[in-house]
Amino acid sequence: MRSYDNRKLFFVYIFIIAFIVLGVRIFYIQIIDPTYKTLAEKNTLRYVYEYPQRGTIYDANGKILAGWRPIYNLAIIPYELEPFDTNYIAQLLDTDTKLLKTKIEKSKKMGGYQPVIVYEDMPDAAVSYFYEHESEFNGIIVEKRYTRNYPLKTGAHFLGYISEASPKKIEEDSYYQMGDYVGVTGLEEFYEKELRGHKGVKVYIADVHNRIVNSYKNGQLDSTMINGKDLYTSIDADLQKYGEELMQNKRGAIVAINPQTGEILALVSAPSYDPNLLTGRERNKNYIMLSNDNKNHTLYNRATMTRYPPGSTFKLVNGLAALQENFIDEHTSFGCHGGYRIGSHTIGCHVHPTPVNIISGIQHSCNTFFCQVFKVFVDNKYFGKSSVGYERWRYYVNILGFGVPLGVDLPNEYSGFVPTSEYYNRLKGTRNWKADGIVSVAIGQGEIGATPLQLANLAAIIANKGWYIPPHIVRAIGHPDSLNPKYKNKIVVPINEKYFNFIVEGMEKAVTSGTATIAQLPEIRVAAKTGTAQDPPRKSHSVFIAFGPVNNPKIAIAVLVENAGWGASYGGPIASLMMERYLTDTIKRIDLENRMKAADFLIK
Amino acid sequence: MQQNNNRKFPPDIIIISIYIILSIIGLISIFSASYQEGINFFSLSFKYIHVKQFIWILTGLLLFVLIIYSNPHLFSNAAEIFYGVILVLLFLVLVIGAVVGGNRAWLDIGNGIRLQPSEFAKYTTALLISKIWSDSDAKRNINKTMRNVLIVIAIPMLLIFLQKDIGTMLIFFAFILALYREGLPSYVIFIGFWFILVFILSFLIKQFILLLILTAITLIFIFIFRKKRKVIIRFVEIYVISIILIVGVNYFYKMLMPHHQERIEVMLGLKDDPKGASWNLRQSMIAIGSGGLTGKGFLQGSQTQMKFVPEQTTDFIFCAIGEEWGFIGALVVLSLYLILLLRILKLAERQRSIFSRVYGYSVASLLFFHIFINLGMTVGLMPVIGIPLPFISYGGSSYWAFTLLLATFVNLDMYHNDVI
């Protein structure tokens, strides 16, 4: 008879192995895997938030650009949600049942007792229904929150918009949680910290029935709510709105600056849109519609984020550089016979009196004169090498605000583009290139790229005859008198004031009897410069900069209309109408105004 | 041949010590898991369950002493009577039982005290199968013995199944493990494991694919053992039964209670419903997992104190230990149990009488099943099956039943040179 004694050990092994398995498993969940510690906090800690009111954004005259309105959101508490008639509720909310169901299922999966928004900005009927039938629902609450409201429907691009914080944002900044609003572009993004204020929070311990038992750690983690600060901008809402009307059905931008303060009076990017579109329940739908606009790129802020060839407006920069370096003076003149010849190729010029100097060169926007000036500068023996001369020329371009960001209080400001000599070395494959090889930059063509903001800033520098305060929109934060500390200091451009006088004279003459006569205003001295920036194979961009009154500059402006032709054809009239509106409060040139409003350059 | 030398040994001090330590750990854990603001350990009122458990422990100790001073022959002689009495009670439960937590497993005996006969059924079954296996002619007619043993195990299982107490019913499989020591063929164990594996896989893999895999494996084995006819026949048998099992799973599965179906699905990860079926498991793992190395301290476990884990004084008592005493506390409990089990095995081997040895292995197997399934359940290794943790979980019936089980073995061991 067998005794099966050898089976003794089987039991010993089985027991030991089983206990090791248990031990390892317990070790894993207690020591290795951190998820359970987080989940334990989620179970017992309740964060009760008090949401601050987002700051209001005012225009220069105290009109509300961005205010707020209450909205009611439908939220579920994942652990308390009990089934309800989704069909009926979807009907009440005027939304798709399936959509609502998936949203609820997704939110429910997140677990916990923190409310999760499943529907934003409920219709009034639904809000009152929920308040009347509160007791019939478990785990469903109506949350009152505030969203933006734009009574003037203007300034969409520089205002930006707010949106629910993305998972990425929440990961980056622990302040934000699911369902929190955050400024996404424009001032809303740039001044997010000031505008949002600070959430108040109270932390409690709750038991399994979600009953609050106690304050957590005697309130050590609690904080009080602080409302957001208001922003006082320098935008003139009337002017802004007028600019948007003039630019309707066009692509381009207007930037108007008060040269004495650097304050931006209007910043238009066209095509524009009603900022109210990006609030409330239709927000996502509208956002998708706007962001899918691949032809005209409505959401893009062209005023600060797009580079354009500045065209002939850039001749002013070129002229100032040569004057300051004494390569030319007010008497230096060149003859112009239909263009500037480089070998067999000619940069053409239109018919005008000849020869011209710096003043009449600006007045008639002579290509030949400024090509010659550039050649004299860059190829000068003094530098030994053209690339060295070019670098010196580029220095003046930079100090006049091109190729560098100006520091405007908007996110993602583009620096524009001014090539370095190194760039041309690579492009030409040699270090021994001459001015003629790159001469198109002398007249603002070729590789040069500038934002409309930089062009307006150039007008401001010239208006001030050699200094500027970086352009900005927000004058004061929190209180109308607490001036924005970032924008107090003048930046002085190291170019002699007397050279600016020649430039101003040329620009004034362009208005009185030159290329920019369209900008004439009765009894106001206006200085202006046209630009026609080539954009082959399409029509040129119409560029125009101006300022006035010359003796006491109140407005400096740049207008750019994409593919609208000559600078004087659309850019000029629009800039002039803006100045007329701002300086005289009335428009006398109704026909011109109507013609501008009616023009349509959108890509269809 | 054999002769009694009537020598009496002292009771085993290791088993008794561990028994007492585990009881105290249980009492402390129950106090913490049922703690309410304003009471302390000496709040002596019967409305507090730690006081009740204290009474069960005191009476349990009394029972322990009573048992170890009994005549060892009592247990084998009266095995049928004990077994019969419990069967009657199990019948009674089905007729007049009280329903607690979905199971009709309780007999009301007045004053709010309820008795759970199924807990005691493990004890009486252990005694009876030990007796049958140790009968002088058991080995001569092994098939008859096996049949009788299986009937003795199956009857209480069936009655407990009818009470819908699946957890306690499954525990009776521990006897199969115990009998392995006594010569139950290896393939019974192997086939048991194989069927459990196939059962689980049938939930995870599509039936068609599983059948293909099974066929492939069988064909490979037939090829390998192509010279051995007997082996091939056995493989074909297993193959056929497996197929019946897979095809039948759907059918069997539907016979289960919906909450059992859900629990199996949750354990296999097929279903995740944090507020529903997987709540217990999820909360249990959160409580234990948040304990860390040293735990949050006595009465400091947020999950335990806020009563997040259901049944945290009974089936999920280990959560209170894991959360408040951490990995170190869990390790202490695990070690005590392992030492206890190995000690029982060691003592079982020194028994001169087959009765005592079979009984010893039954005790070890029963305890092992309880401990492994209970702890495995709390940490997500096992489906949620409601069975108590020996000596620690709150409850008079289970505490007494485990006391009887263990004390009887200590008593038998005091006479390990005798033939009982």
Description:
The complex is a heterodimer of chains A (604) and B (420). By secondary structure, chain A is α+β, with helices and mostly antiparallel strands. Chain A folds into two domains: 188 residues, Penicillin-binding protein 2a (Domain 2) (Alpha-Beta Complex); 315 residues, DD-peptidase/beta-lactamase superfamily (Beta-lactamase). Chain A has 21 helices and 20 strands. In chain A, the strands form six sheets. In chain A, strands 2, 3, 4, 5, 10 and 16 form a six-stranded mixed beta sheet that branches. In chain A, a hairpin with a 2-residue loop joins strand 13 and strand 14. In chain A, helix 10 packs antiparallel against helix 20 and helix 13 crosses helix 15. The mean pLDDT of chain A is 91. Chain B has 420 residues and is mainly α. Helices cover 67% and strands 3% of the residues of chain B. Chain B has 17 helices and three strands. In chain B, strands 1-2-3 form a three-stranded antiparallel beta sheet, covered by helices on one side. In chain B, a hairpin with a 5-residue loop joins strand 2 and strand 3. In chain B, helix 5 packs parallel to helix 17. The model of chain B has no long low-confidence stretch (mean pLDDT 86). Chains A and B meet through helix 1 and helix 2 of A and helix 13, helix 15 and helix 16 of B.
